[in-house]
Amino acid sequence: SEITRVKGLGFLWDKRTADRFNGRVITRNGKITAKECETVAEAARRFGSGEVAMTTRLTMEIQGVPFENIEPLRQFLKEQAGLETGGTGAKVRPVVSCKGTTCQYGLIDTYALSEKIHQRFYVGYGQVKLPHKFKIAVGGCPNNCVKPDLNDVGIVGQQVPLVDPELCRGCTVCEKECPIHAITMVDGKADIDGGSCNHCGRCIRKCPFRAIATQTAGYLVYLGGRWGKRTAVGRPLNVIVTDEEQVLSLVEKCILLFKAYGQPKERFADTVIRLGFEKVQEMLLSNELLARKEEILAQ
Question: What is the spatial distance between Cα 260 and Cα 268, in angstroms, rounded to a whole number?
């Protein structure tokens, strides 16, 4: 019972030992300050084995914490740097983010968006029991470095290009730069295959004559991805969302839908399949779930 209790606090039993645990320190989106890093290092020295491991969800795991050190460790982290442990259980898990804010390929401010998701849903929905864990990832571009399409909800930056044939001189720079070969020259002008283009925006930045402009910029939202014992690639909504607040609203609707319609121990991917993607999309693009928010959360 104690192993179960402290797991809820973010401390997982190290099976090699009788009473040692590895404590997960929440990093919000994989980015921490130097002060926070110093605090985690000192906590590992004082209360654990002196080792820290990064998890696949970009949290920091202090290794080898004796059972009696769990509460002193949590108190030290809180007092010194406002850090908390957690990240387990059937609820919203810590969000992961790529470095799209600073990366040359990033199309959106991933750090800012993931911080908002962390505060609104990891913290704000922290006491909401869900049918299963619920993972969210934010990717700055279609490179998918943090695998947004393998999360319950994944967000990917988008920049849809549009060619102005009057400005295009057929120099082929865009054709050579396109990483998925979606651009060809037709009658001496750049032609973009809309079915193949993944909206990475590289052609827009590389065109020396500014013949390719941004038609739409925003976010693509994937639903129902997962990895683990069973894997599934998420499916994107058929719209590109252009407003950050709408993205946050969609994430909230997904959580509410999972709470309302998910079955015990069922992953969101299975809920989407069971209900049908088209039906789920229809619900998410309406305001039905937000109108029922209090009712759903009271279940």
Answer: 11
The DSSP secondary-structure symbol of 68 reads G
- Name the CA radius of gyration of the chain, rounded: 22
Relative orientation angle of helices 70-81 and 34-47, to the nearest 10 degrees: 160
Cα–Cα distance measured from residue 84 to residue 236, given in angstroms and rounded to the nearest whole number: 33
Per-residue pLDDT of the chain (299 residues), as tens digits, is 999 999 999 999 999 999 999 999 999 899 999 999 999 999 999 999 999 999 999 999 999 999 999 999 999 999 999 999 999 999 999 999 999 999 999 999 999 999 999 999 999 999 999 999 999 999 999 999 999 999 999 999 999 999 999 999 999 999 999 999 999 999 999 999 999 999 999 999 999 999 999 999 999 999 999 998 999 999 999 999 999 999 999 999 999 999 999 999 999 999 999 999 999 999 999 999 999 999 999 99
Residue 120 to residue 127: CA distance in whole angstroms: 12
Could you tell me if 189 and 118 are in contact, meaning their C-beta atoms sit under 8 angstroms apart?
no
Q: Considering the entire predicted model, what is its pTM?
A: 0.95
